[in-house]
Structure formats: structure tokens, C-alpha cells
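ok posting inputs for the nicotinamide-adenine-dinucleotide job
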Amino acid sequence: MPNSTPYSRFQTVLDDVLSKLSLSDEQKKWFAQPQFIHKKEVSIKKDDGSDVSFPAFRVQFNNARGPFKGGIRFHPEADEEEVKALAALMSIKTAVVNIPFGGGKGGVQCNPKELSKGELQKVSRAYVRAMLDSIGPDIDCPAPDVNTTPAIMAWMRDEYEMATKSYSPAVITGKPLSYGGSLGREAATAKGGFFILQELINREAMDPSELKVAIQGFGNAGANMANFLHSAGYTVVAVSDSQGGIYSPEGIDPVRIQKYKQKTGQVAGEYCEGSVCDIERMKMDGVSHVTNEQLLELPCDILIPAALDNVITEVNARKIQAQFIFELANGPTTPEADAILEERGIKVIPDVLANAGGVTVSYFEWTQGKSGGMWTAERVDSELKRIILDGYKAVRREARRESMTYRQAAFSVGIKRMLEAMEVRGWL
Ligand code: NAD
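and the output
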């Protein structure tokens, strides 16, 4: 499907699962479109005195199970279609891990790399003012996403509290620790994924020390996952970032790579400066340079896309050598690729389950914001483990009972929980 959009890809999976669930038209209607789409312009004065406006979106897909919840991304390609798809996925995700939220997502169509820190702060505050009527601790609680940081969440909370004359730490999550953040939020997505992967590998009676892992993306999700897996004895054979990646069949030490990335700005920085690589040293260490496309097709047992969407497609799905694909990124696999992977017996642990650790710890942050309490790191970890593994077990049970793939089963669990809430609330 060359002209597919993120939302059309979501709908393909959704339609497939809805058809298996034999729902009424009235029930299906709730999944066809978001409940609300807010489209605004955020305008700021730039440092040079000129005025600039950016399209801004907040899509509220479904709040049957609780306040809308989902990140805000600042990206030149953030448009209504993309934000809609991400909001829909959030509704399924919060239901799969059974936390009391619905799903939403936001976006500002801008390139944050072209904005100064002051301009970025103005955009963040203008976004909150534009969406003031639609967000709130009991209505819709945003969070960080691509290119939005704890500092941005702090500006947004501050703007909301000033505009509403309230104390509202629960209006937004992913805040800095010094301003209402939660311990454990930083690595939560990778930690949740790690708990699921460990459970899966244990159940398959496999030995981590015999398993090779390739990870695309070395940011928050990918780098933390690489560290957890390396510490647990897995062999991380490849990592990459937007500049490309490195591969060593003998394994790579992610801590060392992180150190070099901090120094040189790229994962290949230990061996390469710009496009010039120290070939002799690479040979000596058994390391080779790989492109992001090559990384996906490397010999490994577990492949972890942790960067972009739409990277595993019908073009490369037949060339993937991994036995498991673990989706830390949102939407990395197209429906066409899913069908090929299923036919080839490759198990895909879908995004709505695999990366739900982030929103789960966001829920803990929201709880702490509402109650004024502070959780220890140990409490965050043990509650995250319990919740994410409950979600995993529910999906596994559904997959077995209904002969579904894990993605279909996760959607099925999520949809059923959303329908249950709609029924008890009298919406259906
Ligand atoms: P991030 O910005 O911290 O890291 C992204 C990484 O991807 C960086 O290493 C970047 O260099 C790399 N990258 C960018 N373009 C690339 C390309 N063309 N090829 C390969 N790598 C490229 O982002 P993150 O928070 O780690 O998010 C990564 C993915 O995980 C996204 O899909 C995001 O939606 C998903 N996710 C993140 C969280 C979270 O809590 N961080 C939660 C749920 C889902």
C-alpha cells in the first residue's frame, strides 16, 4: 500500500480485528473517528521580531475509560492524520495495560531544531493557551513525545496553572523530577518492554546469553533497552541512530557507545568521524558500519525497532532474520509486513503492548500529582512490572483463545475493554 498513511494503517488493523469480533454498527461507530479533533494555529514572535504561526493539533480519540492521555510531538510532519493515528493507538494501549485513561495525542507542525530555546518555550506556552478548554487533570493529560522534553512539560504545566489560577501537577506528565515528575519515568518505556521480553524468553525456555539483539534507534527507548538487555546477558549485536549504525556479531557494549554518542553525536562516533571511518580499528574490533535498512535484515534473534514508524514493510519483511520483533517504536510495521511475518512464523510483540511502560509510569506520575504523594523508585518498578505483565498475559491469553496474532489480540483486548466501559456508562 504505497500511499498509506499512519491512520489508514491503523484502520486496516482495526477493521481486521473488528470483523473478527462481530460487533454491531453502533459499537463499530465509536472506532471510526476520534471523539474530538482540535485544530488551532499557535503564533509566536521570533527572536528577530518576525511573527510566525504553526498548525497545532490535539486529537481526543476516546475517553470512555478515563481522561484522554497521550503525548505532544513537535515535528515538521506532525499533521492531523498522524496525530489521529497516534491518538487511536493510545486508546488501545491504555486499555491493554488497563490503566484508567482514554487516548489522545497532540502535535505542533514545526521544526524545533530551527527554534531557539526562548522560541520553543513560546510555542509550548502558546499550545497550552490554544488548547486550554480541552485539557486538564480530569479531562486530557498530555505528555512528551518526539522532540518534546521534560523542560517543555514544565513550561506547559506552568502556563496551565497561571491561566487557570490553579495548582495542577496532574495536568501533564513527563515533567522534570524537580517539578512534579516521577522517579522511573525516564527509562519507563524500555523497562516495561524489558519486563515483557524477559517473561517471553523465560516462557520459551530460551537463554538470554544465547540471544542476539539488533536495535534501530538509540534514543530514550532504544538506548535504555540496549543497556537493560546487555546487563541481563543478551548480546546486543547492532545499534543505530539517524546517521546509521554499527554491527558486531560478537556484541557491542551500549554503555561505551552511549559515551561516544555523547562525545561525537552519533553511535558510530567511536569508529567514524562524519563519513570517514577508521577501517583498521573497525576490523580489529570486528565491527562494521551498517545502514538503518541493513540493520533490520541482520542475523539476530530479536529485532527491536525503536525509532521511526513504517520501517518494516512488504519490501523487507521477507529478508528479516529475527525470530521475534519487539516494537518499542510506534507503528514500525505495516499491515502488509505483518501478514508476511505471520506467514514466516516470526512473532511480533506490538507497540500497543511493548512500549506501554511509558504511559504506565505516566499514570503513576498523574496519581502522585493528584494525591500529593511521592513514590520510591522500587515502588514504580514493582507496580510497572505487575501492570505490564498483566497486560502481556491478557494479550497472550486472547491470542491463544482466538487464534490471533499478538497485534490482533492486543487490539481485541483493548477494544473489548473500551466497549465494556462504554456500555456501563450508557453510551451504547
Ligand atoms: P528519541 O528522540 O529519544 O530517540 C529516537 C532515536 O531514533 C534517536 O536515536 C534518533 O537518532 C533515531 N532516529 C531518528 N531518525 C532515524 C532514522 N531515520 N533511522 C534510524 N534511527 C533514527 O525518541 P524515543 O523517545 O526513544 O522514541 C522512539 C520511538 O519510541 C518513537 O516511535 C516513539 O513514539 C516510541 N515511544 C517512545 C516512548 C518514550 O517514553 N520515550 C514511549 C512510547 C513509544
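notes: The first strand starts at residue 36 and ends at 45. Residues 265 and 323 are 31 Å apart (CA to CA).
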